[in-house]
Write a structure and sequence with these properties.
about 200 residues; 7-stranded mixed β-sheet; alpha/beta; 6 helices; about 15% strand; Rossmann fold; FMN; disordered N terminus; about 40% helix; signal; Flavodoxin-like domain-containing protein; 7 strands
């Protein structure tokens, strides 16, 4: 039995939209440190734990026809959010140099680097410091794009400027609240508290 034309049209539209998203978005679960190359001199390098920064990175990459590089630590952070927060705090307070899964093999070809990361403990994650320390960014323009859970960028821009030796750090980076993970945890905890003992 054939479907009405309106149903077929809706299914086609939904499939088209979902297919477009699958192609356009950076691949979740892609190989750490993997690159999606374009021919220009713009690089989008990002670190993302929950996916918020990854979405923005993909949007910038498409708009700028840039090469996309996912920054990953050699030893992944824990899956548990609170464990990750604690590990990041220890790394920050101990000034730990995080090992990277991979580096950009031909950074010299890029003049502009969009650098994306979430705020952890009111600063840039240790893996971002490690990324900047591992690459010669002298003479390049770095444009930060930052996600945070409601407390702003903290001292992250100063940290990027201090570790990006010889680079020009753009003063009009994107700073955006994207706290879904923390807000979700708080809401679930409130709900559980409201249930009382069942």
């Amino acid at each position: 039995m054939s479907q009405p034309a309106s149903t077929r049209r809706r299914q086609f539209m939904a499939t088209s939209v979902l297919s477009g998203l699958a192609v356009a978005a950076p691949t979740a679960g892609a190989a750490p440190g993997s690159m999606r190359r374009q021919g220009g001199d713009v690089l989008v390098a990002y670190f993302s734990r929950s996916g918020n920064t990854r979405v923005i990175a993909g949007q910038i990459q498409r708009a700028q026809a840039a090469t996309l590089f996912e920054i990953q630590p050699a030893r992944p952070y824990p899956e548990d959010y609170l464990e990750t927060v604690e590990q990041a705090r220890r790394e920050r307070d101990g000034d730990v140099r995080t090992a990277l899964m991979a580096t950009v093999p031909d950074l010299a070809r890029y003049r502009t680097i969009y650098l994306g990361f979430p705020i952890w403990g009111e600063t840039a994650p240790p893996v971002i410091r490690a990324f900047l320390a591992a690459h010669d960014v002298k003479g390049k323009t770095i444009i930060p794009f930052i996600t945070h859970g409601g407390y702003g960028p903290g001292n992250s821009l100063a940290v990027v400027a201090a570790h990006a030796r010889g680079a020009r750090v753009h003063d009009q980076g994107l700073v955006m609240e994207a706290d879904q993970e923390r807000r979700t945890m708080e809401r679930v905890n409130q709900w559980l508290s409201g249930l009382g003992s069942t």
